[in-house]
Every structure is written in structure tokens, then in C-alpha cells.
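Notes continue from the previous slide.

Worked example: a multi-chain complex. Inputs as given:
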Amino acid sequence: MSDNFADHFKGKDALGHVIDARVKGRLAASESHGLEIPGHVGELLYSIKETTAILLLLWISMQTMKIPTSQILHIYIFLFFGWIVWSAGRSAFLGWLRLQRLNRLITEEKWEIEHHRDQEKQELEALYKAKGFSGKLLQDVVEVLMADDNRLLQVMLEEEMGLTLSAFEHPLKHALFSLVGVVVTFLAICGSIILLPTYGIYIAGALMVTVTIIMSSRKEKTELMSSLVWLIGIFGISIASVYFISQILNIFIFKL
Amino acid sequence: MKNNFEPYTFDEFFASGLQESTSPFLTEESKTWSKNLGLKSAMASVIFLAIAFIFSFSIQPLSFLFLTFVYFLAGIPALIKTFKDFRSFEINIDVLMTLAAFMAVLIGNALEGALLLVLFELSGAMEESVTFKARGALHKLNELAPTMAWVVDNDGSAYQRSVKEIPVGAKLLIKANEIVPLDGFVVEGISSVNLVHLTGESAPVTKKPQDEVPAGAKNLESAITIQVTRISADSTLNKIIQLITHAQEAKPKLQRWLDKFGKAYASTVIVLTIIFTVVLPWILSIGFWGDEGSLYRALAFMIAASPCALIIATPTAYLSSISSCAKNGILLKGGVTLDALASCKTIAFDKTGTLTTGELSISDTSHLFGDIQDTNFALSVAASLERHVIHPISAAITGYAQQKQLKQIEILDFESKAGFGLTGNIILNNQKLPVAIGLSSFIRSMLPDDLKTLLDSKMKELNLENQVIATCLIDRSVYVIRMKDTIRSKTKELISLIGKERQLTPVMLTGDHKLSAQSVAKMIGINQVFADLRPEDKLNLVASLSEKEGLAMVGDGINDAPALARATIGISLGKIGSATAVDASDVVLLNDDLFLINWLIGKSHKTLKIVKQNLFLALSVIVLATTPALLGYIPLWLAVILHEGGTVIVGINSLRLLKK
């Protein structure tokens, strides 16, 4: 019996286990066009995928406009400095913005507890009623939680707002990993163009995407094969779109 | 819209196989986006393909752009499936199709490859839609099953508990308009229940103390308290849900063989394609690449030889039939049941509760001995005693007395001896006389010794063994009230139709007395009667008939369960049948309409006919298209049209079985 408990909680106490479960829930609910994995690893993978996509799409566009490879490399070097600042800066900015939002929520909830106690009590009753508590048991639970304002604030933040305390990383850490992602991708892509001017960028791009998908898939515990084929498919269709549309435009508009 | 505090029901999500359209994480509005996503994607692919085809004559890059969309929408899911199949070393039809479509790109025939992908996606979406319809009945039943119940404690307070944790014997409060969560019998309160979702029967049925109520019934009027007789896993509703689940999983013999054959066949076609690609340039003096090349011809051969239509020929037909049966209130344990039913030459009916309703009616009343000889007076006394209790015999006697407008007699000192009979006194001609009704042994015990012997001899004379009787005593006069079962309506027509239209021999199997069995058999037109059967005799007879010529056995009660399980096909009555009988049978008639048996047998024959038609059509396409494809008479696009056209026709032919 005790072995089963140990397996279930994975060496943590029940509360620690609940926090883990919540992080997992947040991980699964994260927006599909944002970070698949919350935290610095997610920032790194996202930045690699985004940078690879932009460099590949630019490459196709410039190739169809018959811009020489050496000039494309020059453009990439200029772009690198702008992109690295944007990527890391945006990551830090969004992180701080979120932290600010969360801190404001705590302040608001604290004010609610101090000034609208009856309404908070009703909210608490409704919350626990929805969890199956009723009658005297429900009243007892509510009274115990209402007795301590600190505990009440935590319960309201977690139960009512679905927030998890002690689960967010510092925005600067996010920014750093985003920066690393940009540097690695630029090095790989530019290096591949220099080594294999015609197909190098495609091989490097496919490798970068594959590695990020394998890492995300392991972290998210999703099915690798589907993720890999879908994402390569999305990359393929975006590259094909740029390629064919640029050809059409070249024929009918730019007359190249 | 659900409010945020209402507990979410996850059952539909799990029952649907985690389908996106039932995901608990999506808003109600967003769920509609997910419905028929496969079909929507296929339709979008069709439009993109049409645009690609139109622009292929004028603006090539635009045509290629739209082809890319087609390969993305239809090709990526196919590619994922193929990789997964490769990973598990499984070469099947999906692998064949995906390989052909992507190889077509390599030889510069991307348009034909896209056509193949789109048609393959369309036929897949159609198959999915048939499967979804067949699963509809299960969703509805799952929606019916409550997950929580109000348990009444010893102190009278009620609290909610998960139905999975409620033991046998617990008391449950069922409020008005609530669904009964578990099988049980009423212990308090009177109300009407509706079994429409469970059995198709819409008329409300009154339930009073001691009456059984099945899980899934809807309480219509006032609150009742029931005592649980079966736990959640054993409940009638759960057994029915399991039956439908098995129906979707149990594959007929032919389908199992085709599944196995499909894998070997697909591998052979791939090997042959490689061989033809390599060998044809030498044999026919043609090139390797181009529209006349060996790769092109081998690809056309591969598409024409693909067994898509062959693979869907059987499952779509069986699923359509199962779905149609479910709509008529017939549950089947899979397509295998239809095969077996079509092979039966004999159909055996249990008598009591199956051919007859199990409701008793008075056949005659005999005066055995004593001074008071008026049988109508005896019936008045009997009805006056019986009106105090609830029992099938009392219902028959009081009903008969009411029908004959017999007057009620006041019973003094009424007493009920549970399991034996009822006693009391009446005033007749200013005299207080003892009266009683019950088992003959009970009445015998109240008689003096000389009358005991007389009763024994009279009973022997009347040959009452195996008959339902009630013995009535008025002072020193004794009467026997004989009762008979009521024959179900339209039974005679059914027996006649089964013989004439389906060429099945009807027989009757019963544990009842031969005379009583023969009289019922004569009334409904059954010539072969096996009476006085003990359960083991019945089982042996069913086993021998099943082995000899295939037997469909129709029964209802727990005593029929072994015979139902042993017969080639066991058909049980779901409404009155026991959960054990339902479990042991292959077919359940939810609304107890025996007349549906004739329709069902017809359906089983029609299903086999359509399966044969489908197989013929699928094989014809393969045989007629493969060789011309190799010789270059059939271009790639025509091979695709022939192959996928055959698949669509086979699917549409199967859908004909959906008709009621």
C-alpha cells in the first residue's frame, strides 16, 4: 500500500504532487501558436523554430528574385543583430508583463477578501459545492478556509483562478534562452549555406526542426511521429507557398 | 450552455474514443468546428484539386501551389499512418495508397497522385461516417447512465455517491424526472417510469413497492426509494452498453479473413510493382521514366490492384446492418451474429414469457367437493381475499372478478401467510365461515383428515401437475382455480411468416406439462413441441439442434441463459428478460417485439447478399483493370478513378442496409 502511495506522489508529498499536476495541466492547455512548453526550454525551442522558418522563407523569396547567395548572407548578418534584440527583448517584455498581471491579480483578490468577505464566502461555497461537498461538511470546509486570510487568498488564486504559485521563471532567464536559440539557428543556417550553397539550408532547416520537435515531444510526451510529420508538412507548405507565389509574381508582375 | 460550477460529464468523451468534437477542453461552440473534420478536409481537398486541375492548363505554378495544399491536407494524415504502419512492420492498403500517391510526384504525375489521395480520403471519411452512425446508439445509452446517485442513510438523510461505489442493498432516492441509476426494486413510494430510451416502449409503467425498476428508466412523477439489487457493473443498462461495444468489436469470419488477407495481398502488390518496374523495360521494350515508362505502368497496376473496395466491402455492410438493427430496437453482438443467423435452419422458442406474456388469466374454476357449489361465489371470495395483496395470481383473480362484475365480500380477520396463502372469515347466512386461498398443501392442512384424502384423490383425478392453480376453501367446500399464460399478440403470424418467408422450422421448448404446451403450440401453429424439459434436457436438445442444422433460440428468463448461450444464435427479450439472459444471448430485442425476428432474419440474409455483391464488384475491378494497366491501356488517372470509384460504389451499396 505504501509503495503505491510512493509511486503515485513520485517522492513528493500530496501538495507537491498537486502542484506538479497543475503545471502539467497548464502545459497541456498552453496556446498552440505560443509556447508549447512553459519555461526556458520552451523559449529556446520556440526561438529556434521561429528563426529557422523566417530564414528559410527569406531564402526562398530572395532565391526566386535571383539575389546572389553572398548578398543573402550579408542580409542574414544584418538581420541577426536586429532579430536577436527583438527575440530576447520580446521574451523578457512578455515575461514581465505576465508577472505584472499576476501580481495585480493577487492585489485585487486580497482587496476582495478584505472588503467583500460575504461574496468571497459565497464564491467559496459554490466552488466546493461543485466539487461535491454538501450540507455540514461543506459548511465546515468553508469555515476552516475563511478562518485564515493567507490560506484563503491562496485557495482563491489556485481554485478560483487556476493559478499555481511558485511555478513561473524569471523573464530574464526566458530572454537568455531565446537569445541562445537565435544564435544557434543563425550559426547553423549560415554555416550550412557556406558549406553546401544549394541544399545546405534545407538540410540544416530540416535538422533544426526535427531536433526541436524531438525535444518538445519528449517534454510534452506527445506522439513523435505525428508531430514530426505535421510540423515538417507545415514548414513544407509555407516554403512551397512562398516559392510558387513568388514564381507567379515574377512571371506576371515583376516580369523577371 | 453549462455553467462553470456544474460538474462536467466525461463519459461521452471516452465513449467516443477521445474524439476531438467531444473534447472537454473545447467550448461548446468550438466543438462544432471539430465535427466531421475528416469530411470537411476531404471536401476542401476536392476544391483545391479542381482548382489545381483547371490551372494546370494555364498557370502551372498556381496549379502546383494548390496541389501542395492537397498533399498537405490529404497526404500528411496518410503519411503519418503509413509511417506508423511501417514502424509496426505492417504493410496494408494505407501504405499502398500513400506510396502510390507520393511516387506519382516523383514521376511527374502529381495531379494523379493528388486525385488518389483525395478519393482515398473521401472513402475514408465515408467509412468513418458509417462507423459513427453505428456508434450513435452507444452514445445515447451512455448519456442515459447517471454517474451519481442519492443514497439514503439509515437516519433518512440523503447524500450523493458515485454509482460505481454503491453496493447491493443500498437505498437510493430517485427524484421526479431523474434517471434510475442502478437496477433495484421499489421500497417506498409509487410513481410511473418511462423506458423509452432503454427499450423503445413509450407508455409509462406504474411502479409500486416490490416492483423492479431497471437502470436507465426515467422516473416521471413523484420521488421513490429503491433498494439496489445489482452493482453498476452488473446493471441491465451496463450489460446493454457492453453488448453494443462487443457488436463493434466482434468481426465476422469473412471480415477477419479479409483483414489477414489484405496484409499479405498488399505486400504482394508492392513486390509485384517493384518487379514490373524493373522487368517491363526488357519484356515490352519500353523506357523506365515517362508516361509510357515501366514505373508509370507499374504504378497504375499498383493502384488498380489495391484492395480498398475489397477491404471495406464487409465492415461497412455489417456496420450499416448493426446500426439499422439498433434503430429498430435490436442489439447485436457484431456482424458475426448476422452470419450465424442467416445459416440457421431451425428456430426454437421458449414458451413461458416468450411466446406467452407471462401474465396469468383464469381458464376455469372447478368445484371439487363441499356443499357450496357456486363457483362464481367462490371466485368472489377468492378475489376479496386476493385484493389485499400484490402478486401475479392475485392480479389475475381480482382482474377476472372485476371483468365478470362479481360483488366483493367483506373479509373479517384477514391474515396473510407469506408463501402459503391467505385466510379470513366471511358472514354467510348469519354464520361466520372460515375462507382461505393458496397452495393446495396449505388448504389441505386446514381440512379434517377425511377431507384431506378426498382432496388428494380429486387433485390426482384432475391431473393438475405443472399447471398454475390456486386452491380456495369456503368452510368445508374446496375449489380449484386454473390459470393460463396469455399468448403474445401476432405470434401466430410470426410463426407462419418464419416458415413461409424464411424457410425456418419453428419448435417449442418448455419445461411445462406436455398438454399445456401442446395447446399453446396448436394455437400459434408450431408442430414440433418438446415439453417437460428440465434445464439440462433443454440445454442438450439445443446443443444437438445447433450442431445438426443451426439453431436460433428465443428466450427470456435466467433459466434460458445456458440454452441461449449454447444455441447458434441466442435471442433474448431485453425488457422483461433477466440481465443474465441478455448477457448470454447474441441478440437482444429491446422492446420485446417478437415480430421483429422475421425482419431480423430477412436483414441477415440481405446483409450476406450485399457482402457478396460488394466482393464481386471489388474483385471485378481488380481483375479487369490490372492487366490493361500493365500493358499501358489504362492511364494512371483512369486506374485511380476505377479503383476509387469501385470503393465508393461498394460503400454506397453497403449504406443501403441502413434502411429500417
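Summary box: Chain A touches chain B at residues 29, 126-127, 129-130, 132, 134-135, 225-226, 229-230, 233, 236-237, 240-241, 244-245, 247-248, 251 (CB under 8 Å). The radius of gyration of chain A is 25 Å.
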